[in-house]
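This is your field. Please look over both lines of this record.
***
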Amino acid sequence: MSLFIHHAAWVDAPYVVLSSGLGGHASFWNPQIEALQQYFHVVAYDQEGCHSDSELLPTPYSVDHMARQILDLLISHNIREFHFMGHALGGHIGMQLATYQVDKAFKLFSLTMLNAWGELDAHTQKCFEARTSLLLNGGAEAYVRAQALFLYPPHWISTHLDPLTEAENKQLMDFPPIQNALARIQAVQAFRIEAEHQQALKDVPIHLIANQDDFLVPYQRSQQLQQLLPQSQLSLFATGAHASTVTETAQINQSMLQFLKSA
């Protein structure tokens, strides 16, 4: 894994750690870096197994592996107090990370989760089954070319086709071993919020962000997550779809900062 630190203007700024979803790349958060860097040291990272030259992930593979990897990386850089922000799978990594606080001697200031869930929705399960089938039967190109349909609103795709195609081409050049992509899909499907997560998070400020037009994860899953984490607050937006950090950047950045500055 590679870790990237974008320092704020002053040394004593707190840290915020950004964890991507299924793609696993730090670059997913590029639209947020400049806004967050005004107030925080911003940490983004490439998750293990997400590049073309990656070694094969262990089997079985789980969100627990992912959470322990980022924690080890943070501690190796002497970052022991931080806010954590995760997109979908990244939110699950954050929930799992919270369960290590006592043993690992670090402090989680807050947790922000975008379009995440506590229990997999049947619709999302169908989406993952379709994507898995594309990967197994059509290969990496079929998988990557279909990905935008799950992430972005139709009108956004219509008006951003050229840069989207360029991004897809770059992704294909660096696509990880198919076994790794499948292992990560299986890991995110297997995650469930348990009593240990709720207990570990009971004193942690939590911000849930969801989009009503998210095709991949119904926004009702964030509402259900809010019921399971009663100290959390929910920001629900009408548009933006699953990757609203990209499609509604200004709105999402403002919401993130408003919460982080008060947490």
Observations:
- The chain has one domain: 2-262.
